[in-house]
Amino acid sequence: MKTTTLIIGCGDIGMTLGQQLIAAGQRVIGVRRGAVAALKDSGIEPLALDISDPAALTGLPNADTVVYVLSADRFEEEAYRAAYPDGLRAVLGELAGRKAPPKRVFFVSSTSVYAQQDGEAVDETSPTEPHGFSGILMRQAEQALLDHPLPGTVVRFSGIYGPGRDRLIRQVSEGRIAPSAPPMYSNRIHRDDCAGALAHLIQRTLDQAPVEDLYLASDCEPAPLHEVMLWLAGKLKVESTETIQSPLRRRASKRCDNSRLRASGYVFRYPSYREGYAQVLREGGFLPEQA
């Protein structure tokens, strides 16, 4: 009998994850508004449902594992509160009362919960003292899961990039680059590794292998933003003509340590920005024509 994974908030990452799980023989149900059209021909069973409607939550099907990867509608405190702590608590409350509750609930969080800004290394044991509303509310949602009787795992993603997530490439193609000093460490993870890490942890759950309650998911090489943009400029064959300050928010400079995730057996498809951006450049048609 197939195991079932329920993906709540089945957008870009959810669809990529779902297709990986289907390829591994799982049944996948994707929840999102407009699910039928959005998930057409994906192999993921669509379920159109608004989790902000308490009456609708009874329509959530039972599943072996649940992934909560919802995105806020907009970058506003009210929207973040509804999507993260309030929405997750409502889903947990519904699922906990089932005769067949899930074996584990995964919540996709963010490294925005960290306030470190001076290039410090951070891992799952590092203090989380976010200043902005997004990090504060994300941290509240994390704690709601960790405090809940249902088994739960928080996965904190760093900056996600991949197909369609090419803002940095476009900045570099316009001749813009971050300054070299002071260095601001940036952290990233390719969309396919976001899905891959989740699929890996779901399989460990189904195999009854140990799964921690918290993982930091970022690639294996934190790097100064200037270095990343300089590498992209070389691939794009453009010269940098403008130094930009906007990405250099000092509050964002830290180095994410993914040792716990790798120790669990996950092998990154794109261990650094070089492999990952090479794929995005190639697939996105950004590379200049060969002479």
UniProtKB/TrEMBL annotation:
Taxonomic lineage of the native organism: Bacteria, Pseudomonadati, Pseudomonadota, Gammaproteobacteria, Oceanospirillales
Domain NAD-dependent epimerase/dehydratase: 7-166
Protein name as annotated: NAD(P)-dependent oxidoreductase
Signal peptide positions (record): none
InterPro entries: Epimerase_deHydtase, NAD(P)-bd_dom_sf, NAD(P)-dependent_oxidoreduct
Originating species: Halomonas salipaludis
Entry-linked CDD domains: SDR_a4
Entry's Gene Ontology molecular function annotations: aldehyde dehydrogenase (NAD+) activity
PANTHER family named among the record's database cross-references: NAD(P)-BINDING DOMAIN-CONTAINING PROTEIN-RELATED (PTHR48079:SF6), PROTEIN YEEZ (PTHR48079)
Cellular-component GO terms for this entry: cytoplasm
